[in-house]
Automatic annotation (TrEMBL):
It comes from Ruixingdingia sedimenti. This is Branched-chain amino acid ABC transporter permease. It is found in: Cell membrane. CDD domains: TM_PBP1_LivH_like (cd06582). InterPro entries: ABC_transp_permease, BCAA_transport_permease. Keywords: Amino-acid transport, Cell membrane, Membrane, Transmembrane, Transmembrane helix, Transport. It comes from the Bacteria. It holds the Pfam family BPD_transp_2. The keyword Nucleotide-binding does not apply.
């Protein structure tokens, strides 16, 4: 019994860190621009192919080298998506629905480009770290510990940026009141672009952490996007703290469900938990942005 609980704890901790870093990118865009980016999973998978090209597929860089190249490239890609895909649609009537449909179409474009360029065969990435350690009688891969540590570090850096950095404070101001932020001189379009850039960076960072664990495939971004969407709704649209709580709660639920019922019950149980929370708190655990 104790061994099972320990397994659930470590599994939930690792899954929670992964889900947290991935879902925060989706939440960040909605919080700043009110755009529900259905292309987020496809952007994540495109970044995963970029990581594969930079390591096994082309340049043969190690993971620190891939990080140094992929992060700024992902940020620039996010800026371009906001400027040329999202911003023109925002100036039209019914822009919320229009941007949602636009991102959905952009997701199909990215998926098919990845399919044409890289083919249908899944790609494998080398592990971040080799070996394993024993913790409380449970064998934990060093790669899992590295993923958890790096993901939690990224979450802490993002939270510090949003709390103390002037640009982060501007993003929070826009998320709370766009009109008021514009009146006091904040360049709202610049904040929108920054939100998309940071979101793309988070997607790329998650891809870098997860590509050694899961295969890289053209349609592989949709399952994690679905989970990220559930986490964001569960935590509260636009709430970073809510997303963090929701990610770990659902991760521990998932670990317990796998241990007791098997993996096929994960999403049904997730949605039952989500519906139960929304019945009590329709805006999610800590929904504040997007009021």
């Amino acid at each position: 019994m104790m061994l099972t609980l320990t397994n659930i704890f470590f599994s939930g901790l690792s899954l929670g860190a992964i889900y947290c870093i991935f879902a925060l990118g989706l939440s960040l865009v909605y919080g700043t621009s009110r755009v529900l980016n259905f292309a987020y999973g496809s952007m994540y998978m495109t970044a995963a192919y970029g990581a594969w090209l930079l390591s096994d597929g082309w340049l043969g860089l190690n993971y620190p080298g891939v990080f140094l190249v992929l992060m700024p490239a992902a940020f620039a890609f996010g800026l371009l998506v906001e400027r040329f895909v999202i911003r023109p649609v925002r100036n039209r009537p019914q822009w919320k629905t229009a941007t949602m449909m636009t991102t959905l179409g952009f997701a199909f474009v990215l998926d098919n480009l990845n399919l044409v360029v890289f083919g249908p065969t899944a790609k494998a990435m080398p592990p971040l770290m080799e070996g394993a350690v024993q913790i409380l009688g449970v064998t934990v891969a060093n790669q899992t510990l590295a993923v958890v540590g790096l993901a939690l570090l990224a979450v802490a850096v993002l939270q510090a940026f949003l709390t103390w950095a002037p640009l982060g404070q501007a993003m929070r101001a826009v998320s709370q009141d766009m009109a008021g932020a514009a009146i006091v001189g904040i360049r709202v379009n610049r904040v929108f672009a920054l939100g998309f850039g940071l979101s793309a960076m988070l997607a790329a960072f998650a891809a870098l952490l997860l590509s050694p664990v899961y295969l890289v495939s053209p349609l592989g971004g949709w399952p994690p996007f679905l989970k990220a969407f559930v986490i964001v709704v569960f935590g509260g649209l636009g709430s970073t703290q809510g997303v963090m709580w929701a990610a770990f709660i659902l991760a521990f639920v998932e670990a317990a469900v796998i241990a007791v019922f098997g993996a096929t019950w994960i999403l049904p149980v997730w949605f039952v938990v989500l519906l139960a929370v929304l019945l009590v708190r329709p805006r999610g655990l800590m929904g504040k942005w997007g009021n």
